[in-house]
Design goal:
Blueprint (H helix, E strand, L loop, with lengths): L4 E3 L16 E3 L15 H14 L7 H8 L5 E3 L6 H8 L7 H23 L7 H26 L28 H19 L13 H16 L8 H14 L26 E5 L25 H4 L8 E2 L2 E2 L15 E3 L1 H7 L8 H5 E2 L1 E3 L9 H12 L7 E5 L3 H9 L5 E3 L17 E2 L18 E5 H14 L3 H15 L7 H10 L9 H12 L5 H7 L3 H8 L17 H6 L15
Parallel strand pairs: 10-11
Antiparallel strand pairs: 1-2, 3-7, 4-13, 5-6, 8-12, 9-10
Length: about 600
């Protein structure tokens, strides 16, 4: 949704644990304080919803949220600049209850859950248009489910009672930690499912063009994911996979009704300037070059709070590359990002998951392995003129390839023997969890952001939270669990047909490439589907929960990421933050900590 004007924090939007509320941006007159009565008005309800939308920025885009979603998995290890603090702790599984990354969802989500509780509790008695009221309630219940899912997938069972009863709005800070109900996880899942079922019936069929307001497609997608997660949990229901299948199929079969579809070109999904395309069901909104609307104080130095720093997190040290003693990128380039070097792809990601880099376009549309000559300097400036001259002196013009990371050592050897003018790196020469001698590696390109004032700045792009392509993966997984592997293969092949597409291919060549990457029923296993999820969703901050919720984290991370040296089965849950335990008035605080962290 397009958010424009600064809005003060809800003073009564507090959690049961006395955490602070969050700031929102609204197209409203700024206010400084509220009473409960304000929530009993149409303006108050709408303000609460806007605040709950904006609160998702804490969970999608800042460094802590991205650490939780990506590091310590089969996909990504930590880069050399991530070899300390919260990134390293999560990367090697030496996680302290004081880790900053785990504190973010705990400290931020409950205040927004409480606002959603207020809307659900007070809206039925507020006089307003019935259609708008239904939509408002649908938004509140989707958002509440999303906030709870972000907690459950990290911490397991979490309180539904914030001090006034399960899913009730609470206006009085409480130090009681209501987490000892043996049925709490079951209640967590059921509350999310109930909320999302309501959202699928009461949200609009389609989201507005050019803004991210919730619609039924996003609700159906999240509902299918929640059913899938519950199917692997200790509180699974016999019908979960069937429910996940039915929900995903409803969205796929009804894609025209819900205003969504797969794009023809995989590379267009995350392309800057195409942020509101029909494949994206929901994203957490930011506006380019609008730090006020995005609630960013310092775009060059803020890494946490509500920033979207994704454009810089996966970037290797491209500014260190030289040719004949000349630095090819003496200043950072907007498109290539700030080389923060926090996350580095594992060798499994580069060499196994994306083994076919010819017939499947997803590697080239996910990672940047070639860097053309470019500069931040303005054309006509003295710095620009000098840079162009310096590059010309060593045989480069703007747009020429400066360096290339070859897919195999053999290809790199051949290119080097051909005396290519650009710098060539073989996989064995790049940084990975097997080699730390060189800080160059293919960088995730999905989040590249040119529309920034400085190469130091964070991104003003929306952060994708829900994509139609994942619905096909969920449908395939559910079909497999139901014994319908042939149908599962059909869903996978829809994505693979699209993956074969590259602009400029002849019809014959496209058909040949599609044929080479088709799968059959015998290929379908859970591990294969998880591999396919990497190819389709790599780097999108859902890998850790995907593995943990399916019980595959230990197996796959240990197999494919040598850096996870301390990983054990209890790491399927994060520790409850120490700040929460300290604030609890219970005598035996340790009883509320997750196993393995006491």
């Amino acid at each position: 949704m397009k958010l424009k004007h600064t809005f003060s924090a809800f003073l009564l939007g507090i959690t049961a644990f006395a955490f602070s509320g969050c700031q929102s941006v609204l197209d409203e007159t700024p206010r400084t304080a509220f009473t409960i009565d304000y929530f009993k008005t149409q303006d108050g309800l709408q303000s609460a919803i806007y605040t709950a939308y904006a609160g998702l920025r804490y969970d999608f885009g800042p460094i802590g949220a991205m650490v939780l979603g990506n590091v310590g998995t089969d996909e990504f290890t930590y880069g050399d600049q991530g070899a300390s603090g919260q990134t390293l702790e999560c990367g090697i599984y030496s996680i302290s209850p004081t880790n900053g990354a785990i504190g973010t969802p705990w400290n931020r989500n409950y205040s927004n859950i409480n606002l959603c509780n207020a809307v659900v509790e007070f809206a039925p008695n507020v006089t307003m248009d019935a259609t708008n009221k239904s939509k408002l309630l649908g938004e509140a219940r989707y958002l509440r489910a999303m906030y709870y899912l972000l907690l459950v997938e990290n911490f397991g069972a979490v309180p539904l009672d914030l001090g006034s009863g399960d899913l009730k709005f609470n206006s009085t800070p409480s130090c009681t930690f209501r987490r000892n109900d043996p049925d709490l996880l079951k209640k967590n899942f059921q509350s999310m499912i109930d909320d999302l079922l309501f959202a699928t019936e009461n949200l609009p069929d389609q989201r507005p063009a050019g803004e991210y307001r919730l619609a039924k497609g996003a609700a159906l997608h999240l509902l299918a994911r929640v059913y899938t997660y519950r199917a692997y949990s200790a509180v699974k229901q016999a019908t979960d996979f069937q429910s996940a299948y039915d929900t995903a199929k409803k969205l796929i079969d009804g894609k025209a009704k819900y205003g969504t579809d797969l794009l023809q070109d995989f590379g267009d999904i995350h392309k800057e300037g195409n942020d509101y395309n029909k494949e994206i069901l929901f994203a957490v909104e930011r506006l380019p070059l609008n730090n006020i609307a995005n609630e960013v104080v310092n775009p060059s130095s803020d890494f946490d709070q509500k920033v979207n720093i994704s454009c810089n997190m996966f970037v290797s040290n491209y500014t260190s590359v030289t040719k004949n003693g000349v630095t090819l990128f003496p200043v950072r380039v907007l498109q290539y990002g700030r080389p923060l070097r926090q996350f580095c792809p594992t060798r499994w990601t580069l060499d196994v998951a994306f083994a076919d880099k010819l017939n499947d376009s997803r590697f080239n549309n996910t990672f940047r392995d070639a860097y053309p000559i470019a500069t931040f300097y303005t054309a006509g400036s003295s710095d620009y003129t000098k840079y162009v001259a310096d590059m010309a002196a060593i045989g480069f013009a703007l747009g020429d390839t400066a360096f290339y990371i070859a897919p195999t050592d053999a290809i790199a050897k051949t290119l080097k023997a051909a005396n290519k003018k650009y710098v060539i790196y073989s996989p064995s020469e790049t940084y990975s969890n097997q080699n730390r001698a060189n800080n160059i590696y293919p960088a995730l390109r999905k989040y590249e952001a040119v529309n920034r004032n400085s190469y130091q700045d964070i991104s003003g792009r929306p952060f994708v939270a829900s994509k139609f392509s994942e619905v096909y993966l969920l449908a395939a997984e559910a079909a497999m669990a139901l014994g319908k592997n042939a149908e599962a293969a059909q869903y996978i092949n829809v994505l693979r047909d699209r993956a074969a597409y590259r602009s400029g291919l002849s019809a014959t060549e496209l058909a040949n490439r599609r044929a080479k990457i088709q799968v059959s029923a015998s290929d379908i296993t859970l591990d294969f589907i998880l591999d396919e999820r990497t190819r389709e969703l790599c780097g999108e901050s859902i890998r850790w929960p995907d593995l943990a919720m399916r019980g595959k984290l230990v197996d796959r991370a240990k197999k494919y990421n040598p850096d996870v040296t301390n990983l054990q089965s209890f790491h399927l849950l994060r520790p409850i933050p120490q700040s929460q335990l300290d604030a609890t008035c219970e005598t035996v605080k340790s009883q509320y900590q997750n196993p393995g962290y006491n």
